[in-house]
Amino acid sequence: MTTLSWNCQGIGPPWKVRFLMDVISQERPNFVFLCETICKKEKMEFLRMKLGFEGMVVVDPQGRSGGLAFLWRECDQANLLSLSQHHIDVEVSVEGMGVWRITGMYGEPERNNRRKTWDLLRNLSRDSNLPWCTIGDLNNVTSQQDKHGGELYPTWLIDGFNEALTDVGLRDMELTCHQFTC
């Protein structure tokens, strides 16, 4: 089973749609989470059909920012649990893997609001006892080594994020495949 997550920073331009189609054709993910789509549900519905996915949940952008989409291959594979401007939480049933939960998240982009992302994680952790995977762009790092270039990342942000992960029983998994895109 493969899952793809991409902060596409606007899925509108044709070259981004082609890029996404190429990655999906190569990797054949069962689930795709897109954040910062900056696209309304109607356009995402067209994209869903073009990509060959049966199921989808969309959170429309607010103005010219945000927007989330969670897509899955087979229509009976996922059921929506909850959503907001920063997450889509679904219960998943995959043959041979049982029932579990996956949450696509887009974390608060402003550093002073990152605690909201950590609190969202904590609140979501209380909603279900199913095995849980979280994907997306949480706009946080777990160590200085996760950041490339620029100034050092503030220690209070690293510590706060790691504390939230510990509180909810999640651990950071290494990225594979397309780590840096566009």
UniProtKB/TrEMBL annotation:
Record-annotated Endonuclease/exonuclease/phosphatase domain positions: 4-149
Molecular function, one GO term: catalytic activity
PANTHER family linked to this entry: ENDONUCLEASE_EXONUCLEASE_PHOSPHATASE DOMAIN-CONTAINING PROTEIN, RNASE H DOMAIN-CONTAINING PROTEIN
Annotated protein name in UniProt: Endo/exonuclease/phosphatase domain-containing protein
Lineage: Eukaryota, Viridiplantae, Streptophyta, Embryophyta, Tracheophyta
